[in-house]
Amino acid sequence: MSSQVNEPLEIWINEDLLLPGVRPAPLLMHLSPPDTRAELLFWNLLRDKLPELIKIHRFTNLADAGKIVVTPHFISSYYSFKKEREFYKFKRQVLRSQRTLVTFSNCLEFQPFQGEIFFAGATYNDKKETSIPTPQWTYDLGEKLKILKPSIPTVGFVGNVEYPSRLNSLILRYIKFSDSMVKGMAGNLFVNRNLNLGRRRLIARLVRKKIINEVRKAKNLQTSLIERKRDFFSLPVEERNRQRAEYIKNIEDNAYILVMRGDDNGCYQLWEVMSAGRIPVFIDTNRSLPELRGMKWEDFCVIVPFSEVHRIGDYIQAFHDQLSEEDFAEVCRKSRAAFDQLLPHNFVVRILEIIAKSTN
After folding, report:
1. Residues with Cβ < 8 Å from 316, sequence gap 6 or more?
2. What is the spatial distance between Cα 282 and Cα 299, in angstroms, rounded to a whole number?
3. How many domains in the chain?
4. Can you tell me the distance from the alpha carbon of 98 to that of 282, in angstroms, rounded to the nearest whole number?
5. How many beta carbons lie within 10 A of that of residue 196, not counting itself?
6. Among the listed residues 130, 154, 110, the one whose alpha carbon sits nearest the alpha carbon of residue 256
7. What's the CA gap between 269 and 137, in Å, rounded?
8. Among 83, 122, 251, 303, which is disulfide-ready with 264 (CB 3.0 to 4.6 Å)?
9. Residue 168's pLDDT band (boundaries 50, 70, 90)?
10. Helical axes 325-341 vs 344-359, angle rounded to 10°
11. If we measure between CA atoms, which residue out of 75, 63, 83 comes closest to residue 113?
12. Do 250 and 224 meet the contact criterion of CB atoms below 8 Å apart?
């Protein structure tokens, strides 16, 4: 650990903001029961590590809090419980008191308050961006059986493409969106932070349909593209399980997996692809990613600017052709190694360094 955080970091949490039965934010993970599902066991490594790194104090009256206040859950949890108004009121109170406020958003688009330390999964390469790029931790698929370098690049994808909405369908009926318009919306911080979820899903549909269409046009790729038309979490349990198994098999069976933004400028799939030791084809919509130590994203990831998606076949082929069998295996290893580097129990040290630096 950095010398800046060589002592346990003292943080304060508001007991009134604790939500029953809800996964806490990463710095409080050791307050929750251990995970038992194989895909979630990585959280237990963080639980084991946190007691030596964090000292938690609880309060109900802000006057009793110290200088670092951490919101107990991801922001989306407060929306789920319809407590967002109470949540934002508290955030303003903390900032007015000149204390340091630390918040985790994980997913979706939220605008940080001035002075807030805001860790987010959806971020932009923009001079006005103040969010700190953070991995979107979901599941660890486990490093799968080694895959040999295919003679033709095999490219997989499973995901929602339609994002159905009556209003969005009406908009698409009367407005023709050019590629430049879609690009401008997809990577624009101001647009995305000020549109509601429904309107951002229109952006997701335009972006994803464009990408899928261009991949299908590429004659040099062997593709396995499964387009979904309904929200995964609204499906019956049996259908969700079937689709989840199909999604994982698609990752296992292909060397390259398309990774693109959805209704926010992030993508959970990136981290699952890396966890499986596969090569992400990252469609860049002006997104900033967490910094890697000792390697670069380009070492194991095909990065395609959205403006160049019409040349996606060329990008993948050029990446593929430079690899020998041994090189291909090494790239897959690096993909998994980068995932390991960014797991919560490792990334937490960076989080603490950032907080400690801001309060010194």
Report:
1. 153, 155, 218, 220, 221, 256, 281, 302
2. 12
3. 2
4. 39
5. 8
6. 154
7. 10
8. 122
9. confident
10. 50
11. 75
12. yes
> Per-residue pLDDT tens for 272-303?
999 999 999 999 999 999 999 999 999 999 99
CB 71 within 8 A of CB 104: yes
Residue 335 contacts residue 280 (beta carbons within 8 Å):
yes
Tokens of 47: 């639980």
Structure-token pair, residue 196: 């509601």
Is the separation of the CB atoms in 116 and 95 below 8 Å?
Answer: yes
pLDDT of residue 4: 46
Token pair belonging to 188: 């624009």
Residue ranges of E strands in the chain: 9-14, 54-59, 68-70, 100-104, 117-120, 132-133, 154-160, 222-228, 256-259, 279-284, 302-305
Cα separation, 72 vs 134, in Å, equals 17
297 and 249 assigned to the same domain: yes
Collect all residues with Cβ–Cβ distance below 8 Å to 182 and sequence separation of at least 6. 203, 206, 207, 210, 306
Beta-bridge partners for 9: 54
- What's the CA gap between 312 and 320, in Å, rounded? 12
Q: Are strands 9-14 and 54-59 parallel, antiparallel or unpaired?
A: parallel
**Position 14 in a domain:** yes
Length of the chain, in residues = 360
Angle between helices 325-341 and 268-275 in degrees, nearest 10: 120
Can you give the pTM of this predicted structure? 0.93
Other Cβ atoms closer than 10 A to 167: 11
Distance CA 2, CA 6 (A): 6
- Dihedral angle of Cα 295, 299, 305, 311, to the nearest 10 degrees: 170
CA–CA dist 4, 104 (Å, integer): 21
Instruction: Tell me, yes or no, whether 312 and 347 share the same domain.
Output: no
Supply the DSSP symbol for 242.
Answer: H
What's the token pair of residue 18? Answer: 């604790």
Residue 7 pLDDT: 84
Let me know whether 347 and 301 are in one domain: no
The pair of structure tokens assigned to 67 is: 């200088």
Give yes or no for a contact between 215 and 315, defined as CB atoms under 8 angstroms apart.
no
* Residues whose CB falls within 8 Å of the CB of residue 278, separated by 6 or more in sequence, listed in order: 144, 147, 251, 254, 255, 256, 257, 332, 335
Are 51 and 173 in the same domain? no
